[in-house]
Amino acid sequence: MVAGYPDLRGPLALTLSYLRPPLHWVDNPLPLGAVVRRVKPKVIIYCDGACSPNPGIGGWASLLISPKQGKEKVFTGAEADTTNNRMELTAAIKGLEALKVPCEVDIHTDSQYVHHAFTEGWLTKWTSNGWKNSERKPVVNSDLWRKLIELSRKHDIHWHWIRGHADSVENARVDALAVRARQGLAAQLRR
Predict the structure, then answer these.
(1) What is the pTM of this model?
(2) Could you give the residue ranges of the DSSP H alpha helices within 20-141?
(3) Is there a catalytic annotation at residue 27?
């Protein structure tokens, strides 16, 4: 006799007991229609941009921190002809582009331009006005805003504004990295 199969006997019973579990083992513990939610990985992003002169040569940096894994990654870059605001946006974009799966993200930026667009409803107004600002002029950097919106939809994002050059070690770090990226490109262009 095989547990879960009271009427089954003989060599076939032994074979079947190894092939398939008794029916009571496969009961679904979840009620019909239950939703299983996956916990999204938590990531913290610090991002900053630099440009001198503005407009001019610019740099950006993103620091991604995975608190659960205790790991971090840094991404930097530079452009020859840009603005500070474009570099701030690029830093946020590059940070989000580095994420391979949907995440719960805390983004820390010292850019009120980037922060307020998401937290003060600027983006909603711009999109409802056909990408025109309150003066009915085209929104500056709409190409980058559209990309940032697209990336933001993949994640649960909490935006945090931090005072630049204040008490945040991480913000000071991405600021220095953005400046270094800008300086590196400036040195290359002088050659």
Answers:
(1) 0.81
(2) 84-97, 112-119, 122-128
(3) no
